[in-house]
Amino acid sequence: MANHAAATPLQSKDHKTLMDVIDKLRSKGINRYVNLPQIVVCGDQSSGKSSVLQAISGMTFPTQDNLCTRFATELILRHTGENGEEKCHVSISPGIDRSKEERARLEQFQYSEIPDQNNIGVLVDKAKEAMGVGADRGRTFCQDVLRIELSGPTQPHLTIVDLPGLFRAGNKEQSAEDAVIVKSLVLSYMKNPRSIILAVVSAQSNFALQEVTQLAREIDVWGIRTLGLVTKPDTLDVGSASEREYLNLVKNKDVVFRLGWHVIRNRDFKSRNATNEERDKAESAFFDEGVWAGLPRPQKGAGSLRVRLSEVLKDQILDQLPDVLKEIQRELDNCTRRLEKLGTARSTLAEQRKFLLNASHQFSNLISEAKDGIYQDKFFGNARLEEGYKRRLRAVVQNTLTDFSDKMRSDGKAKEIVEQSEPVVLSDASNKTSLKPNQVSRSKYVEQTKHLMKRTRGCELPGTYNPLIIGELFHEQCVPWRCWLEDFSKRIFEAVDFTVNAVLTHVVDEDTKVKLWGELINDALDRLNRQLRKKVDEVLRPHEDGHPITYNHYLTQNVQKIRAGRFRKRLEDGLRESGIASKYTTDTEVLLKRLVAHIEEDMETLASSEAIDWMEAYYQVALKQIVDDFSNLAIEASLISQLPYLFTPEIVFDLSDDVVGRIAGESWETADERRFVTSKMEILRSGMTELQRLGKHHRRADDDTEANNEEEYDEEQEYDEEETSEEPPEEPPYPKEAPYPEEETYLEEDCDSPGIRFAPYSVPEAT
Questions:
Q1: Which H or E run includes 88?
Q2: Is the pLDDT score of 594 beyond 60?
Q3: What was the pLDDT predicted at 431?
Q4: Residues near 379 by beta carbon (within 8 Å), at least 6 away in sequence
Q5: How far apart are CA 298 and CA 291, in angstroms?
Q6: Exposure check for the chain: N or C terminus, fewer CB within 10 A?
Q7: pLDDT attached to residue 458
Q8: Measured between alpha carbons, how far is 237 from 239 in angstroms, rounded to an integer?
Q9: CB under 8 Å to 658, separation ≥6 — which residues?
Q10: Is the model's pTM score more than 0.90?
Q11: From CA 443, how far away is CA 575, in angstroms rounded?
């Protein structure tokens, strides 16, 4: 390999440990479940991505950036010190869509020899053949990842993922469908919130026509995690407008990224066989001339790019490490819950019955807590969310029954009798004065009752009424009750059905839940539903069919209140007509005549009015009774209290062996899911251990660094006190100006949101 020692940064042991841990996790496949920090190289075809990889690693990659590589390539570079041995290892990480046999075959793809002339392209072609991809192989794309590990004294600590180049139009080598597949792959890497996007832009093409920067700005809207890279600047005409535009781009004055921009010079066709030393010398000479000479050294050249990318990745890993740990913990918790639902492997009858016993115990406990309003289990979730509220069965039932009580009071009567002294005005199109559809004036209702009394006369004396008329009137008034009881019964049963389903989903896997529902739960719920409907009929029957009977003393009190109120109203009307309200009126005879005039003389009307009074008084008593009976006897006793007994250990004990086998017998899907979750859990636990160890190591290192800094500061303070002159200078010296003002870039302009400013990113210099 080429000697790039002059461009290789000082690499610490901690830096290498940091990169190795992340790469180890990625090689184990943890990135399938948790997003890991990484640098992804994205660009259009022919943008020079392969030349970038070659400049960074010193290896020769396929230079025609088309679909000859239809997979992602992970380039792992490690610094070994000046006396370290150069090593190369190439392998394939199979995709998740591969079968067990294919995975075993692809994992055998291992090469550990440095290829002739450092040409990695030969191994890339062999990897394509092993993966079975290509225009003539029937597989245009695969999810496998080619891993290229290079270590040596000239390499930095760096890991980057190279992706196939973006393109739009198809040809004989690549179709329009392939373009969609490649774009989907690139977007999947770019959308990883922990990916640093290295957006490669060729100066040979119009910037506006290159898709990668548009995608980067759409995904990373604020430019927080994107680093732009301009290639082939030597193709620009000296002094041209295009050269000035790309120079401004690299200076972060056009498309603004927090990490800024970089520029490198690629090999051209004439220098394609040049050595790495010759390539670096030609690049250095190019950037020392023209407009590029004034660009800060850390922003140009392959050597400084290696340093820059290595530092960016290190900072990204350290910054994202706490969030990665939290995400791994969340995934571990999810795996634990899934394994609890799946239970242990149950191939024997004893294991299957034991599984159902445990599931029934959990089910009964959770249902009991839901009906009793004890919401401490994590199953109940957040009450502020609709899902969490619907799982709180007691809250749903209480609120529904409260709505039922309100609805019965407001809309339970078939007719609302109005003491109409003044007409009720309703706003309709004609502005006519009328009553609501279910309202009737008392006078009209009295006439209707008189007509009914004539049709139901018995042996009663004139001026009296048949007591059965009260039952007739009441039966007409309570007609809406059945509708409301059936409606609210349905609502509560739906809430019960939802809770039972949610509890089953929580305690067992989907396959077992379906079997349990079919064998036990569905029939049991149907029985409860029939029992509930039967009880609703039972509590309604006395009110719909029988004669009004009650021994509640509130009946007579209600009648007295109704009569007293009406009598008071008549007295008020008589006093108002007699003029007694005036202090000058003293004619008692006139007063008595006015009062007597308001006493009802028609005995049939009086009897009808009294029958209505008794009916209304009894309605109030019966209304309270039906609300309580529906709530206590129907909902609570016949439905809610029976729920914990739907699926109990006692029921499991009584199940036959055949039924136990049908319910708890493990399908191959369940066994496969358990193997998958167990494997995922092992990978996540291993990753958690590695990252926690890494976090502790860096915290100790930071503490040691801070302690050393404090000691150095104390020594400097003592030295300064000894060397300080008696008279301090009048003014402190001005700070030395930075040699390159463009080194620190603030995103104050070209931002969508005014006033937003990102912290500067200082580019580290190459040694």
A1: strand 87-93
A2: no
A3: 45
A4: 366, 391, 502, 503, 506
A5: 16
A6: C
A7: 74
A8: 6
A9: none
A10: no
A11: 22
Count of all residues that appear for the chain in the document: 767
* 14, 157 contact by CB (below 8 A): no
Q: Which of 66-70, 302-306, 413-417 has the lowest mean pLDDT?
A: 66-70
Mean pLDDT of 52-74: 71
Contact 155, 77 (CB under 8 A): yes
Residue 425 has φ and ψ, to the nearest 5°, of -95, 125
Beta strand 145-152 with 110-111: parallel, antiparallel or unpaired? Answer: unpaired
What does the angle CA 307 – CA 311 – CA 312 come to, to the nearest 5 degrees? 115
Q: What's the DSSP call for residue 176?
A: H
Q: Are 398 and 620 in contact (CB under 8 A)?
A: no
What is the pLDDT, as a whole number, of residue 745? Answer: 38
For residues 373 and 394, give the distance between their C-alpha atoms in angstroms, rounded to a whole number: 5
Q: Positive or negative CA dihedral for 346, 348, 353, 358?
A: negative
Tokens of 672: 């496969």
- Calculate ∠ Cα 44-45-49, nearest 5°: 80
Residue 111's φ and ψ, nearest 5 degrees, are: -130, 130
- Calpha distance 365→643 (Å, rounded): 11
Can you tell me the distance from the alpha carbon of 184 to that of 166, in angstroms, rounded to the nearest whole number? Answer: 10
Residue 439, Cβ neighbours under 10 Å: how many?
16
Whether residue 372 is predicted with pLDDT greater than 80 in this model: the reply is yes
CA 600 from centre of chain: 72
Q: Which residues, other chains included, contact 268 with Cβ-Cβ below 8 Å and sequence gap of 6+?
A: 234
Cβ neighbourhood burial of 455 (10 Å; 0-12, 13-18, 19+) = exposed
Helix (H, G, I), strand (E, B) or coil at 734: coil
The three-state DSSP-derived secondary structure of 125-137 is HHHHHHHCCECCC
Dihedral angle at the C-alpha atoms of 4, 9, 14, 15, nearest 10 degrees?
-80
Q: CB–CB of 261/250 below 8 Å?
A: yes
| Three-class DSSP labels, 395-446 | HHHHHHHHHHHHHHHHHCCCCEEECCCCCCECCCCCCCECCCCCEEEHHHHH
Strands 416-418 and 261-263: unpaired
Q: What is the pLDDT of residues 253-296, one digit of tens each?
A: 988 899 999 999 987 777 767 777 888 888 899 999 889 999 99
Tokens found for residue 43:
């660009």
φ and ψ of 87, to 5 deg:
-135, 155
Average pLDDT over residues 169-176: 68
**Which of 270-279, 334-343, 540-549, 660-669 bottoms out in mean pLDDT, i.e. has the lowest?**
270-279
Residue 40 DSSP label: E
Give me 537's structure tokens: 């009929």
Of the candidate ranges 361-365, 441-445, 523-527, the one whose mean pLDDT is the lowest: 441-445
Q: What distance in Å separates the CA atoms of residue 27 and residue 147, rounded to the nearest whole number?
A: 9
CB-CB neighbours of 233 under 10 Å? 24
The C-alpha torsion from 180 through 185 and 191 to 192, rounded to 10°, is 170
The whole-number average pLDDT for the span 391-408 is 96
Q: Which two tokens stand for residue 142?
A: 């695969």
C-alpha atoms less than 13 angstroms from C-alpha of 167 in its C-beta half-sphere:
19
Structure tokens at 234: 């030597």
Q: Report the side by side order of strands in the sheet with 195-202.
A: 110-111, 87-93, 145-152, 72-79, 158-162, 38-43, 195-202, 226-231, 261-263
Average pLDDT, the chain: 79
In terms of Cα–Cα distance, which of 378, 397, 473 is closest to 640? 397
Residue 668: how many CB atoms within 10 A of its CB? 7
Cβ atoms of residues 728 and 265 within 8 Å:
no
Structure tokens given for 531: 């029992």
SS3 sequence, 224-278? CCEEEEEECHHHCCCCCHHHHHHHHHHCCCCCCCCCCEEECCCCCCCCCCCCHHH
DSSP 8-state symbol, 762: P
> Stretch 298-325: mean pLDDT, rounded?
89
759 has pLDDT over 90:
no
